[in-house]
Design brief:
Blueprint: H1 7-31, H2 42-50, H3 59-62, H4 74-84, E1 99-101, H5 108-115, H6 117-123, H7 126-142, H8 145-149, H9 155-175, H10 188-201, H11 209-214, E2 218-219, E3 234-235, E4 256-257, E5 273-275, H12 283-298, H13 302-323, E6 335-336, E7 342-343, H14 345-370, H15 379-386, E8 403-404, E9 419-420, H16 431-440, H17 446-459, H18 462-472, H19 478-495, H20 502-554, H21 567-574, H22 596-602, H23 622-635
Antiparallel strand pairs: 1-4, 2-5, 3-5, 6-7, 8-9
Helix pairs in contact: 1-19, 5-7, 5-9, 7-9, 7-10, 9-10, 12-14, 13-14, 13-16, 13-19, 14-20, 15-20, 16-18, 17-18, 19-20, 20-21, 20-23
Length: 642
């Protein structure tokens, strides 16, 4: 079957359980809500799928000050750490606070370059910015940066820091000149450092969620002395004036981490964090990344709770199979869980229900956090100043042939440099939602599934991607467990046996419905953000460009001495967001920095953002990608309803 088990075993359990649940267990569940379960005709079933909606969230999901998630079994915590590099207290965020400067001597030239990057992007010509990055790349290569990063003893904190630095410098090198001045080849040393760092982390050598979010923060209230003057950073404060500054600091050869004065249990809130490195380093940019860090923090319990629930699901299936509960009455008995303690099927079901409630609350908090994006990041600022720097070299008309990674890949058979094509940063590269999909049994299809699988296998940190794959390969999903519990409760009621208590099965089904509804709500919230931050600004900019072009056609040609006009004016109208940092048709309260370098990039040509059309930063067609994901999310609820 899909989860790697012989179909004979799954037929004996899941298929039989589904039949029994339809016959009695599901009817009991629905009658508790004043509804009668009836099986629709095939035509009605198809219509039902088209109208499928997730049920409303119960009040307990959003209630403030809810109970803490159930404690994790020690073996689950140990497995997360040893096999997947996941700290159960932090989820997919690094187990330790990110380094703010590498201790690797060969990384020093690149660290110095990223410390000066924001100042260069604001005040230098693209050619000068690229020259500075090229010189840093050459110095790092001479110092042996590639060899240093391939040393397995450097550890993940250093590898993640190197990936963060190299990926940001690479994207700045490519995109700093706007759409009409795109670099197609990275400097040799930078390219080789990026490739080596990507291999050490287990991800593609490109800017991604890992390098731009997971390791791009420090705590504002606890800055070690050695890092006090470190690099161009920005503390996220909603609607604060832009006060980005660049300062060099931190001696090479001494790793700097902001973790020392902060207990692990201290919450990670965007307003209390500082972005380590950005591009233009505006408050909007800082808030965009740091609110995403807070979102990851909100979902920190998910890896442990999901793994514990799936272990319960397998234990429940094994217990019911051993007793034949799915098809006949059986006497009450105990099963040995992985820890060796005696646990009844009803206790397994109740424990899973509590953990699913924690999953639902985490998803709700993630949605609430996502909804606060506009507290500190305006849609137009994101579209014109942040989004262009996140672009990739795949599915990007501005780089139709891909990107040359220096001399790392040599020449092809025709003597031309080999190119690479990687997607840009994407929310799909976060492990949070894909983990929930995998555990709950939500199956996507078509191009959407292909893209999600690519994000999982190539753009997440290697161990995190493996965690998602292992969840998906579990013998029984959470939806399987719900079906089994309902069937066992029905069998117990009709036969007088006491395998799974009916109330416990109901608790599990309700918690499952709440978790799926919360996930559906998160996906709805994400679609709203996509509309507000990509589709609507794009529409405004295109409308402004069309109006300016029409006005130019209607107006008489300006004298040459006026400094440009005619076709040039039409071109500049289409270039309202011609490059990173170009001023949008301003929303109220938007902070815009005007510098000679920015003004020059703003006249470079058509917008970098607009070249990608209605696509996400990852390169997908946004609407056609996101809509089927919501439908697949709702479809899994069919396990508990007709």
């Amino acid at each position: 079957g899909r989860r790697g088990m012989p179909w004979t075993q799954r037929d004996a359990l899941v298929a039989a359980a589904a039949c029994a649940a339809v016959a009695a267990g599901v009817a009991l569940w629905w009658r508790s809500r004043g509804a009668v379960a009836t099986k629709p005709s095939s035509g009605a079933a198809e219509a039902s799928r088209r109208r499928r909606k997730a049920p409303p969230l119960p009040d307990w999901v959003s209630a403030p000050g809810g109970p803490d998630p159930p404690a994790l079994p020690e073996d689950v915590t140990a497995t997360l750490k040893a096999k997947y590099g996941i700290d159960a207290r932090r989820g997919f965020l690094p187990p330790e606070d990110p380094l703010v400067r590498s201790a690797i001597p060969a990384m020093a030239p690149l660290e110095d370059a990223i410390a000066a990057l924001t100042d260069m992007l604001h005040h230098s010509d693209p050619a000068d910015t690229r020259l500075a990055i090229d010189q840093a790349s050459e110095a790092a290569a001479e110092a042996g940066v590639e060899e240093a990063l391939r040393d397995p003893s450097i550890g993940q904190p250093e590898a993640r820091r190197a990936l963060h630095v190299a990926a940001h410098l690479a994207n700045a090198f490519v995109w700093c000149g706007g759409a009409d001045d795109v670099a197609t080849r990275l400097p040799n040393g930078l390219a080789r450092a990026l490739i080596a760092a990507g291999e050490a982390v287990g991800t593609h050598p490109a800017l991604s969620h890992c390098s731009s979010v997971l390791v791009n923060w420090r705590r504002s209230a606890a800055i070690p002395d050695a890092a006090a003057a470190q690099t161009a950073t920005h503390t996220a404060q909603p609607a604060a004036p832009d006060a980005a500054a660049a300062a060099d600091g931190g001696a090479s050869g001494a790793a700097v981490s902001a973790a020392s004065d902060c207990p692990d249990e201290e919450p990670l809130r965007a307003k209390d964090l500082t972005m380590l490195n950005g591009f233009l380093n505006t408050p909007d940019e800082a808030w965009f990344f740091l609110i995403t860090v807070e979102l990851e923090w909100a979902g920190r319990c998910l890896p442990g709770q999901l793994l514990a629930i799936l272990r319960n699901a397998s234990a429940l299936a094994n217990a019911l199979s051993a007793k034949g509960v799915a098809t006949s009455a059986a006497s009450r008995g105990a099963v040995a869980d992985d820890g060796g303690s005696a646990v009844t099927p009803t206790e397994l079901v109740r424990d899973s229900a509590l953990r699913l409630r924690a999953v639902a609350r985490a998803l709700y908090q993630m949605t609430t956090t996502l909804g606060r994006m506009n507290e500190g990041c305006s849609p137009d600022a994101f579209y014109t100043s942040v989004r262009p720097f996140l672009a990739g070299s795949s599915a990007n008309p501005a780089l139709p042939g891909g990107l040359i990674y220096g001399d790392a890949d040599g020449l092809d058979a025709s003597g031309k440099p080999v190119t690479r094509q990687y997607f840009g940063g994407s929310a799909a590269q976060s492990s949070l939602v894909q983990s929930v999909d995998a555990a709950l049994g939500i199956a996507h299809s078509g191009s959407g599934r292909e893209f999600l699988d690519t994000m999982r296998d190539a753009y997440m940190p290697g161990l995190h991607g493996q965690f998602v794959r292992d969840l998906a390969a579990s013998p029984f999903s959470v939806s399987d467990a719900v079906s089994l519990a309902l069937a066992a409760a029905s069998s117990s009621k009709s036969s007088g046996a006491d395998a799974v208590d009916e109330a416990a099965a109901k608790e599990l089904s309700e918690a499952f419905a709440a978790a799926v509804s919360a996930l559906d709500g998160f996906r709805a919230g994400h679609m709203g953000i996509v509309s507000e931050y990509i589709l609507e600004p794009q529409s405004r900019l295109r409308k402004a460009a069309a109006e300016a072009e029409a006005a130019t056609v209607a107006a008489p040609a300006a004298p040459a001495a006026a400094g440009g006009g005619g076709a040039a004016a039409a071109s500049s109208a289409d270039a309202v967001a011609a490059s990173p940092g170009a001023a949008p048709p301003a929303e109220a309260g938007t902070t815009t920095i005007s510098t000679p370098a920015r003004a020059k990039r703003a006249g470079a040509g058509s917008s970098l953002s607009n070249t990608s059309g209605g696509k996400g930063t990852g390169g997908t067609d946004i609407v056609t990608f996101l809509m089927p994901l919501r439908e697949a999310t709702r479809a899994v609820l069919d396990v508990i309803r007709w």
